[in-house]
Amino acid sequence: xxxxxxxxxxxxxxxxxxxxxxxxxxxxxxxxxxxxxxxxxxxxxxxxxxxxxxxxxxxxxxxxxxxxxxxxxxxxxxxxxxxxxxxxxxxxxxxxxxxxxxxxxxxxxxxxxxxxxxxxxxxxxxxxxxxxxxxxxxxxxxxxxxxxxxxxxxxxxxxxxxxxxxxxxxxxxxxxxxxxxxxxxxxxxxxxxxxxxxxxxxxxxxxxxxxxxxxxxxxxxxxxxxxxxxxxxxxxxxxxxxxxxxxxxxxxxxxxxxxxxxxxxxxxxxxxxxxxxxxxxxxxxxxxxxxxxxxxxxxxxxxxxxxxxxxxxxxxxxxxxxxxxxxxxxxxxxxxxxxxxxxxxxx
Amino acid sequence: xxxxxxxxxxxxxxxxxxxxxxxxxxxxxxxxxxxxxxxxxxxxxxxxxxxxxxxxxxxxxxxxxxxxxxxxxxxxxxxxxxxxxxxxxxxxxxxxxxxxxxxxxxxxxxxxxxxxxxxxxxxxxxxxxxxxxxxxxxxxxxxxxxxxxxxxxxxxxxxxxxxxxxxxxxxxxxxxxxxxxxxxxxxxxxxxxxxxxxxxxxxxxxxxxxxxxxxxxxxxxxxxxxxxxxxxxxxxxxxxxxxxxxxxxxxxxxxxxxxxxxxxxxxxxxxxxxxxxxxxxxxxxxxxxxxxxxxxxxxxxxxxxxxxxxxxxxxxxxxxxxxxxxxxxxxxxxxxxxxxxxxxxxxxxxxxxxxxxxxxxxxxxxxxxxxxxxxxxxxxxxxxxxxxxxxxxxxxx
Amino acid sequence: xxxxxxxxxxxxxxxxxxxxxxxxxxxxxxxxxxxxxxxxxxxxxxxxxxxxxxxxxxxxxxxxxxxxxxxxxxxxxxxxxxxxxxxxxxxxxxxxxxxxxxxxxxxxxxxxxxxxxxxxxxxxxxxxxxxxxxxxxxxxxxxxxxxxxxxxxxxxxxxxxxxxxxxxxxxxxxxxxxxxxxxxxxxxxxxxxxxxxxxxxxxxxxxxxxxxxxxxxxxxxxxxxxxxxxxxxxxxxxxxxxxxxxxxxxxxxxxxxxxxxxxxxxxxxxxxxxxxxxxxxxxxxxxxxxxxxxx
Lengths: 347, 397, 295
Known about the structure:
The complex is a heterotrimer. Chain B is α/β, with parallel strands linked by helices. Chain B has helices at residues 3-18, 20-23, 42-61, 81-95, 105-110, 112-118, 147-161, 179-182, 185-194, 213-222, 233-246, 262-267, 290-300, 308-329, 335-342; strands spanning 28-35, 69-76, 99-101, 122-123, 140-141, 170-176, 198-205, 226-230, 251-254, 275-277, 369-376, 379-387. In chain B, α3 packs across α14 (308-329). Chain C has helices at residues 2-32, 39-57, 61-84, 92-114, 139-161, 163-173, 175-180, 185-211, 220-232, 237-262, 266-281; strands at 119-120, 130-132, 135-137, 213-214. Helices cover 74% and strands 3% of the residues of chain C. The model of chain C has no long low-confidence stretch (mean pLDDT 82). Classes of the chains: A mainly alpha, B alpha/beta, C mainly alpha.
């Protein structure tokens, strides 16, 4: 039960972490994460890294779709942009990763803003269609610009290097991905305390009123596409470093649908929700694989059904969440937290 | 494929994954299997996987590798490179396999540096020419003539079949938009140039294509007399049917994953007269090595139908089982030891199931003879065989 | 010139199948304002069910076809009742995601029951192609063009003159007003979903018999049809048909002429490029209703 919680200054009121408990809990969690790689098997490290990458991209998508209300099916294409730029800069030009990752993010931000231009005239469904088209156009470009991307054969990226230290295993990569994810999450959380973030939310809620009030809807929409694509581009860049070999097959339209699923299941318009969603969607196939592996003795048919089960489970989860918990896991989490806030005096 | 085949395949896959409990007591050799059971090449991937599984079971029943059982850890990767990479990481880091029987061109080629760094011998179902040069891909092997040698053989058949002396035969390539589809194209282009064949058209067939009409119309415009199709059986039958509907007179040929006993069944009359590369004999062919395969089939799943892909899986597994035996005898049952053992195969007799295998430390082209078969009355009939010289400039192409 | 004609004719013919699927999209959108991303899966499921009835149970084709239509009708109603009913009033993105989730589930069910192999589908049409101008066209395609023309007439009349059709248009315009006029909106939704499922099933059976086989790839049609409905206008039956034919032709022409330049794959991306152009120039499509919003 929370008590002694009163604020005397505006700063305290606007703080991201409202209570000391929250701050300590977060610090403990981060410390745990830093120690985790030393204990985990390499299979789980691979998953943790992929979760980290998914978290960054999911937050990016949430900024655009959850906070600014612009539906985008182009996530996979932007991931691909970040990844291929990284492969080109790190692989062919041999630049070090502290230069490559921001550059990849910026390039993707620019590409994102280009594809955000239709958002002035298009809303909702139509914007979704335009971003879907963007996906196929970018996919075509990647497959056919063979001199830069290697076409369908794919392209490999060398491991990131820092002053002689090579991040060449999943364990080491974790120490690159996790701090970056934490920093970007903090930045996003803070973004929505600022003028820019509030403008985004205003556009989502009532864009006509926002325009009337002096919020330049077009400028902020483009900026939202830019910031969101920067995040996704960074995630794509880390993906290139983690997967080491990327090809157009890494970025089918199902990836974009997965990310939309992440933010919907996690909770649109919530940074915590993006994290939940990313963890859930990334871990689900792995848990399913473990389950089918364990049960395959009694039901041999499961091994081949695994691919179908993965798809079906994903679809089913989305449908069930949307029908029963449309605000996502973050909403459920807050409900539970609120229950415990006043426990045992819930009334 | 019938439900019985699927059931049998899965139970074998599953039991292969679950044999641990029983077999950990005695020494066992872990081999990874990356198969396509549900992806776009699953029409040929499934029978191949079943072939590998059955061969392993047969080897184990016959005493295994000098007494040690082979544990095949099979995984379905759906022909998606990222899935293959994940499966590879799991197998190498967690399961600690000593070698892998892989499948597709794209993923095998993408992982060539990983397998070389990790020293995991990789026997693929992909016969991509780019995997034959030990200087570039030291740990990659396959038991067949390379796709490049295959297209050269087929082009040689074209040259022999073409009777009009007034001009060169005109050939077109129709290939899938992926590394597997593009694999033999460069070699094919060079061979055409060097041998007086006019390559008049190249058409790309997108993945999951339903209709090849515009590509076929383009090809018709260029007046191709022959065309080589490089996709899998499903795609080939779509192209053949489309060509028949358009009334094309082009004579078609296919690579070994597009041509099997299944083709006449699916494409029906459109498959008549079509030629194809068949490096592993159709099921039931009267050769010494076929008896054990037929007996195993009768004993374990007599109601299933099998084809050349099934035999292909057997060939791959039989070859690497022999390699494992040699590595074990030399006392070097590890990645590097298996590689060295593979490179000792010299004119290794495959019982007629495929041509004899020769792998050396400087040349991973396991064989150079390519049989050409033709569909006559719905049956596959051998019409020719071409032996390609081991030219150094063709190594790795 | 001959190539051009051939491409146009084959484009029209493939476009008729697009038109069929687009019709399903439009019918659902017209009455419920939902864009059903699972339309391709309805097509695929229709083909598989028909194959199962004909193949496994040895029922003569026409009876099997009828049963398939009944199945599709039930499927459409079930989908609407179980999944879309709770989605009323939810934001657009939730509805899009529900239909995407639905499409995943349907694909998984089909893959689970029938696997991924290409299963031969009996040819219901005689296999000898008929000459249309310079191009031999398989009879299956001609039947599908005829089918589409017939459906166009039927649905135009339906929406214009029948009570149910007018009720559907009223519901699309404003659900509240329709309710107050005594129209059972629930029944209208169920009706529109079942019609859309039936139309897709017809398209699926036609497509399967033309291809000669049924496999999971049929579902990709759903994605391809999105540019078609945008071109034609999301709420116009005529637009769906015209859009389908036009898109088929455009796709074939770009494939035929641009493939050699780009090395292939243009046919797949061309509809989406056109989508972008249409969205820039005429977002509501050729025949759609224009919603004006100015700030």
